[in-house]
Amino acid sequence: MKRPARHSRHSARGMTLIEIVVALMIVAVLFAAVTFSVGALTGAKAKESSTELAGTIRALYDTAALSGKTCRIVFTLPEEREEDTPASWRAECAAGGATTSAKRDDDLKDARKKLKDKVEDKKDDRFRRLDSDDAPTLQQLQAQEEKRVNDAAQYSNFSSDDVAEKTLPSNVKVEVWTQKQREKAKFGIAYLYFFPQGFTERAQVWLRQGDNVWTLTISPLTGKTKIYSEDLEVPRT
Q1: 204: closest CA among 224, 176, 182?
Q2: What radius of gyration, in Å, describes the C-alpha atoms of the chain?
Q3: Of all helices (H) and strands (E), which one includes residue 139?
Q4: Residue 217 in 3-state DSSP?
Q5: Cα first-last separation, the chain
Q6: CA distance 75 to 192
Q7: Is position 145 within any domain?
Q8: How far apart are CA 167 and CA 133, in angstroms?
Q9: Helix 138-152, helix 101-121: angle, nearest 10
Q10: More reliable by pLDDT, 29 or 199
Q11: Partners of residue 166 on adjacent β-strands
C-alpha cells in the first residue's frame, strides 16, 4: 500500500510575517501612486492652496482696517531660470500706515521740499537759529525726516498662527497681477497691499497645477475674494 504524498513544509506553512509586510508595502506604494496621479489630474493641491490664500487675503484686509496699519502679502516666486523652485507667500504689516515704495518716494520728496521752504521763509522758530553751533543743519533735518518716513514703512512679520508663511508644492505655480501692473508677475517678488482705510488693490492671483487653473479675484473696496476654476484674463480696464 502506497503512503499518501506529504506536502512540503514550505507550502504548508503559508505566508511568513516578512512576506505579509512586503505585500502591504507594495499595496501602500501603489495606493500612493494612484492618489498622487488623481490629485495631479484634478489640481487638488492648487485648489487647496487657493482656498488657503483666499483666507489669508481676508485676514490681512481685516487686520489693516482694524489696526490702522498697512499690510501686504509678499509672494516669492521662482526666478526665471529656476522654475522648479517652489513658490511661497507670507503676510506682514508695517509699523504704521505705510504705503507702497513709490508713494514713500513721493512722501520723501514732499518732506524735503517742505523743510527747504521752511528754512527759506523762516516760518518756523526752529530754523531761526540755523547759523548757531547747536542748531541742526538742513541736511540733518532732511535726514531726520527721511528716517521718520522710512521707519513708518518698515514691515515686520505678521504675528498670527492663522497667517503663517506658506510654501507651495513645486508643481503648483503662482502668478500675480495688481492694478499697477500691465502684465502678471510670474518670477521674482510680487506684493499685494492692504491699507488702513479699508481697501486693497484690485488684483488677481492664478494657481496652476498641470492643466488645472484656479483664479482668485480681489475686490479693492471690500477685500472680497472669489475663486474661479478657470484661467481668467488680466483685466484691461
Answers
A1: 176
A2: 30
A3: helix 138-152
A4: strand
A5: 100
A6: 8
A7: yes
A8: 55
A9: 150
A10: 199
A11: 89
| Helix (H) or strand (E) segment spanning residue 63 | helix 44-67
Number of other residues whose CB lies within 10 A of the CB of residue 219:
14
Are residues 111 and 94 part of one domain?
A: no
Higher pLDDT, 110 or 131: 110
> How many separate domains does the chain show?
2
162: cell is: 492663522
Gap between the Cα atoms of 81 and 45, Å rounded: 23
Q: Residue 127's domain spans which residues?
A: 101-152
**Which residue is it, cell 494657481?**
207
Q: Are residues 76 and 176 in the same domain?
A: yes
CA 138, 109, 220 angle in degrees (round to 5)?
Answer: 145
For 66-88, what is the mean pLDDT? 88
Using the CB atoms, write b or e for 113-151: b if 16+ within 10 Å: eebeeebeeeeeeebeeeeeeeeeeeeebbeebeeeeee
The residue among 204, 199, 166, 205 whose CA lies nearest residue 71 is 199
3 lies in some domain: no
Domain termination residue (choose one: 152, 186, 220): 152
Q: H-helix or E-strand containing 19?
A: helix 17-42
**Looking at residue 195, which CATH number applies to its domain?**
3.55.40.10
Residues 177 and 212 reside in one and the same domain: yes
pTM: 0.63
Q: Domain for residue 4, yes or no? A: no
**Co-location of 160 and 74 in the same domain:** yes
Is 64 within a domain?
yes
